[in-house]
């Protein structure tokens, strides 16, 4: 990851102070930057919160015998991936072969593609990467047609070893994945018979089957997860003596995944299979590193509003900053950040505080809300006679990390939400 320090900062990196232009990242960080130097709008990361969240998730998984391969598409930030790897993650999960290539360019050696790989160009690339004996790679397939689309390019490229493939089980109304266990078994049999593919377990995503914490939603998720375990057991005779995966777990229902996987043997001696291989019960939660103030706050089992005193808690590790540029009528202020700067697909930003200058203490902003967003403006509604002056700053709680990071090529990291000290710059590669 040393190359990140040598990236030269330019005027194309929005939000940076003018003096940063032309410096390398290392040079700028060595100059003692302060958040008060940065231009608005901004999305800022909280170092203390991120460290806390990474430690909490790593410890929780270790206590339950679960592997963690956090979904790197959340941040597409190699420096944050490294934090997760350093905390014990087995590898990084990604969503496209383009993301895989990016991760490989930064030296990531253990990758799960939570998707099918059927593009011939990327499969030929993968065949070349497999010459690295230390490279762990696994992808998914949910049809025999997918299997056949993989085989020809891998044969033509003379892949030096078989590609590990997991059978993906879906659910009615869900996303991808075989819709029945019997269909998934046929796919597993086809993979096991392949000369260029290796059957390496089962996979799936429960998050597309529910969107809240209602009894009905929890039942749907747990029913799906039990079907996934059933599939794993029914294709056990097709496995060789190598490691296999059973994997699920986004950032909303990982507690339910852990519960069902525990019943299936996660963390127990019987996770060691005959023949010397292991069953790697693996979570892929990714958004936990920054949590949020919206969607995940409302659904995560580890949000501070939901967790009991004896349970771990995540802390929001990102926030937006916008500056008031217009006060056109009583009770309305417009700030200089909009849809191109802040996420909005899983809820609008939430005003959390105001200050006259970055680096000064944040004051509560009661009765404020964001009612609408344009490309470069957000509408801050003020109740009870509240008022914001031109130039005032508004700190925003953000919802959905996956659509926050992709709007920024560089994000400053401060010591904590109340600190002006910038300790890092995080580069993203979407």
UniProtKB/TrEMBL annotation:
Residues 317-415 form the D-serine dehydratase-like domain. Keywords: Lyase. The keyword Metal-binding does not apply. It holds the Pfam family Ala_racemase_N. InterPro entries: Ala_racemase_N, D-amino_acid_metab_enzyme, D-ser_dehydrat-like_dom, D-ser_dehydrat-like_sf, PLP-binding_barrel. SUPFAM superfamilies: PLP-binding barrel (SSF51419). Coiled coil: none annotated. Belongs to the DSD1 family. This is Alanine racemase. It comes from Microbacterium murale.
């Amino acid at each position: 990851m040393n190359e990140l320090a040598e990236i030269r900062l330019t005027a194309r990196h929005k939000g940076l102070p003018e003096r940063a232009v032309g410096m390398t990242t290392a040079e700028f960080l060595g100059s003692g930057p302060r958040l008060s130097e940065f231009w608005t709008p901004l999305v800022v990361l909280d170092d203390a919160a991120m460290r806390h969240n990474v430690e909490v998730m790593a410890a929780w998984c270790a206590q339950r015998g679960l592997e963690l391969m956090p979904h790197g598409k959340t941040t597409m930030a190699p420096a944050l991936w490294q934090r997760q790897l350093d905390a014990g993650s087995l590898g990084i999960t990604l969503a496209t072969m383009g993301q895989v290539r990016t991760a490989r360019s930064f030296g990531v050696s253990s990758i799960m593609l939570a998707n099918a790989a059927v593009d011939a160009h990327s499969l030929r690339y993968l065949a070349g990467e497999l010459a690295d004996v230390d490279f762990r790679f696994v992808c998914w397939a949910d049809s025999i047609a997918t299997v056949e689309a993989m085989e020809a390019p891998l044969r033509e490229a003379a892949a030096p070893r078989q590609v590990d493939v997991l059978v993906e089980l879906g659910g009615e109304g869900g996303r991808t994945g075989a819709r029945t266990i019997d269909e998934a078994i046929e796919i597993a049999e086809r993979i096991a018979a392949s000369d260029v593919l290796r059957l390496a377990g089962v996979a799936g995503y429960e998050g597309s089957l529910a969107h809240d914490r209602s009894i009905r939603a929890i039942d749907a998720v747990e029913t799906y997860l039990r079907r996934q375990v059933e599939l794993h057991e029914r294709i056990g005779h097709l496995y060789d003596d190598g490691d296999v995966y059973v994997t699920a777990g986004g950032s909303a229902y990982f507690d339910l995944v852990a519960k069902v996987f525990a019943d299936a043997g996660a963390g127990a001696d019987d996770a060691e299979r005959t023949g010397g291989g292991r069953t790697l019960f693996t979570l892929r939660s990714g958004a936990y590193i920054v949590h949020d103030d919206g969607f995940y706050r409302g659904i995560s089992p580890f949000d501070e509003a939901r967790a009991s005193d004896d349970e771990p808690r995540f802390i929001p590790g990102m926030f937006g900053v916008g500056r008031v540029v217009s006060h056109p009528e009583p009770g309305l202020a417009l700030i200089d950040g909009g849809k191109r700067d802040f996420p909005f697909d899983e809820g609008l930003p939430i005003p959390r505080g105001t200050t006259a200058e970055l680096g000064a203490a944040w004051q509560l902003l009661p009765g404020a809300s964001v009612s609408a967003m344009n490309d470069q403006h957000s509408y801050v509604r003020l109740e009870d006679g509240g008022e914001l002056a031109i130039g005032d700053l508004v700190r925003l709680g953000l919802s959905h990390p996956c659509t926050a990071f992709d709007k920024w090529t560089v994000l400053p990291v401060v010591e904590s939400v109340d600190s002006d000290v910038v300790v890092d710059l995080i580069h993203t590669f979407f």
